[in-house]
Design a protein that fits this description.
single chain; 208 residues; mainly alpha; Heme Oxygenase, Chain A; 10 helices
Amino acid sequence: MTISNQLWKANQDIAQACLEHPFVQGISNGSLEPQKFAYYVGQDVFFLETFARAYSIAAAKAPEFSGFIVFHSLAGGVLEELQLHEAYAAKWAVNLHSVEPGVATRRYTDFLLATAWSGDVGLTAAAMSPCMRLYAFLGEQLAHDGIPNHRYADWIRTYSSPDFPSLAQKLENLVESYASTTALLHSTYRYAMLCERDFFQAAWVEQS
């Protein structure tokens, strides 16, 4: 079993909690209140900008040029995802220039940047993997019986696309190339998973 598979398997409890979270279930059935999704979109844009920066830091620290290229290409994927969120923002009347990061968002982004600056590239890849793998999992689960026809269908369509798991796999391949199985690696991955859960919870309880 690969390191990434071990990490993902060890955190199935959090993955399932995210799937069953009322925010995600509201996206699944279309019942989520628009203001909650609008808050999420604004926070996710702030998060994704940090995610791209963490990729860039890891790229600069990659010991081989091949690793640099993969990290750099993954950062490009985040920029494409940001374009999608800009479309969401226009649709849901979110002013991205006025978004202030919430506590859960800041906790997650500070953790990612601190890991990218102070840790090695293997640890950074492990810290970033939960976001990619979890969203691929959620997309697959929410589209299992077909993509519904409601206002959040584009979100489900994006993360259930075959392209998204391949991006997650690229990142997990970097974990295999650069990480070693340590207690720190496991705790870092789990903390990122908890941050993902808290991100959904913040969007559920906060108002934009």
